């Protein structure tokens, strides 16, 4: 989310000095309550969604689809992401969660390809 910043503005109050130059102690003089006003804007960035850690997917890949230990690596990064989230480090949690997600994707794609190849090999050997 991009933060929007607004420039500072000097807003002159009208009708305070009736066209006369401002003098100390009179309205219109800087520092006097009726003088110029500075308007400041503050932007607050609120993250609406906590970073995801993908622990359930990592556990599934670890116990069922663990090719090349990608499921174990994904589980480690998922736990690191959850620890960072509990510690309040949301950028670290996003980083570890993203790594866990990539490892889970690779593990899932690899096991799907290996399963497909296995089914094709079994089907070809039984057909002859």
TrEMBL record:
- Identify the main location: membrane
Similarity comment: Belongs to the CD225/Dispanin family.
Q: Which residues cross the membrane?
A: 55-81, 102-124
- Gene Ontology cellular component annotations, sorted alphabetically: plasma membrane
Q: What is this protein called?
A: Interferon-induced transmembrane protein 3
Subcellular location per the Swiss-Prot or TrEMBL entry = Membrane
The UniProt entry, under InterPro entries, shows: CD225/Dispanin_fam, IFITM_antiviral_protein
Arranged from A to Z, the UniProt key words for this protein are: Membrane, Transmembrane, Transmembrane helix
The keyword Transcription is annotated on this UniProt entry: no
